C-alpha cells in the first residue's frame, strides 16, 4: 500500500531529527520553513506532525512561544498500540501474563550475565525502597515497575526492553481494579530481593529460575484473587495515551 503524503512527510521529519542530532526538548523549525523544506501545504504538514505526536516523537506546545519540539517515544506508547491491537483480537489479560512469563526470565538471565553496575545498584535501591514503604501502594507500584524496567534495561537488548516495559505497564492490573494486599506486596519484595541477589552474584541460572518463580507466583495471585480479570479482554482506553 503506498504511503499517504502526510506519512511520507512524517518519515522525513524523523530523518531530519536524527540527521541534525536534535535531542528531546529541542524545537523543530517553524512551520513556514518546514512547508518550504518538505514542499507541502499546511494541512499535510500538520497531519504529519499529529502522527508524530501520537507516537511520542514530538510534543506540540500550544500558545505563544509554543510549537513542536522533539519528544522521546517510550514503552507507554508501545503499550497503547499493543492495547489497541489486543482490543480488536479480544485478547484477555491472561495472554499478557503468559507472554511475560516466557520472556522475563530470559531478561533476568541476560541482566545477571551483563553485570551492569548501574543497573544492579538501581535494583538494590528499588528493593530497599519497596521494603521500606511496603504500606504505601503507590510506592509499591512505582518500585515494582522500576524493578522490572531495570531488569529489561540490564538485558541490553532494545527489543526485549521495549516489549517487556510495555507489558509491564499493562500487567500491574491497576486499571482493571486489582488491589495488592500488604501480604502480597511483602511476597513481591521478597522475590525481588532473591532476583536481585542472583543478579548481584552474576548467576544467570539462579536469576532466570527466581524470575520464573516470580512470574508463576504472579499468575497464581491473579488466578486466586482476581479470576475475573484473567479473562477480561483488554481495551485501548485502559492504556491509551
What does this structure look like?
- The chain has about 240 residues and is mostly helical.
- It is built from twelve helices and two strands, in the order H-H-H-E-E-H-H-H-H-H-H-H-H-H.
- A two-stranded antiparallel sheet has the order 1-2.
- A hairpin with a 5-residue loop joins strand 1 and strand 2.
- Helix 7 packs antiparallel against helix 8 and helix 9 runs antiparallel to helix 10 (about 205-225).
- The radius of gyration is 21 Å and the shape is elongated.
Overall geometric form:
elongated
The class by helix and strand makeup works out as mainly alpha
Percent of residues in helices comes to over 70%
SS summary, helix count: 12
Order of helices and strands: HHHEEHHHHHHHHH
Parts with pLDDT < 50 across at least 5 consecutive residues: none
Instruction: State the separation between the terminal residues, measured CA to CA.
Output: 27 Å
Q: Compute the number of strand runs.
A: 2
Rg over CA atoms, rounded to whole Å, is 21 Å
Output the strand order for the largest sheet.
1-2
Q: Beta-strand percentage? A: under 5%
Please describe the biggest sheet, giving its number of strands, its sense, and whether it closes into a barrel: 2 strands, antiparallel
Mean pLDDT: 91
Amino acid at each position: 500500500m503506498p504511503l499517504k503524503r502526510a506519512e511520507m512527510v512524517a518519515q522525513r521529519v524523523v530523518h531530519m531529527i536524527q540527521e541534525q542530532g536534535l535531542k528531546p526538548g529541542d524545537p523543530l523549525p517553524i512551520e513556514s520553513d518546514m512547508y518550504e523544506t518538505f514542499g507541502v501545504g499546511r494541512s499535510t504538514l500538520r497531519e504529519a506532525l499529529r502522527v508524530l505526536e501520537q507516537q511520542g516523537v514530538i510534543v506540540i506546545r500550544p500558545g505563544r512561544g509554543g510549537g513542536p519540539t522533539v519528544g522521546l517515544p517510550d514503552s507507554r506508547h508501545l503499550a497503547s498500540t499493543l492495547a489497541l491491537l489486543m482490543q480488536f483480537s479480544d485478547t484477555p489479560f491472561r495472554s499478557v501474563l503468559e507472554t511475560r512469563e516466557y520472556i522475563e526470565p530470559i531478561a533476568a538471565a541476560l541482566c545477571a550475565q551483563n553485570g551492569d553496575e548501574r543497573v544492579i545498584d538501581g535494583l538494590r535501591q528499588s528493593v530497599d525502597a519497596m521494603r521500606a514503604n511496603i504500606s504505601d501502594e503507590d510506592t509499591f507500584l512505582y518500585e515494582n515497575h522500576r524493578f522490572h524496567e531495570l531488569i529489561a534495561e540490564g538485558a541490553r537488548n532494545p527489543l526485549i526492553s521495549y516489549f517487556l516495559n510495555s507489558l509491564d505497564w499493562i500487567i500491574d492490573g491497576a486499571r482493571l481494579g486489582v488491589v495488592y494486599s500488604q501480604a502480597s506486596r511483602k511476597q513481591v519484595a521478597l522475590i525481588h530481593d532473591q532476583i536481585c541477589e542472583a543478579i548481584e552474584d552474576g548467576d544467570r541460572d539462579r536469576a532466570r529460575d527466581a524470575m520464573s518463580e516470580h512470574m508463576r507466583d504472579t499468575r497464581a495471585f491473579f488466578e486466586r484473587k482476581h479470576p475475573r480479570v484473567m479473562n477480561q479482554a483488554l481495551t485501548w482506553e485502559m492504556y491509551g495515551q
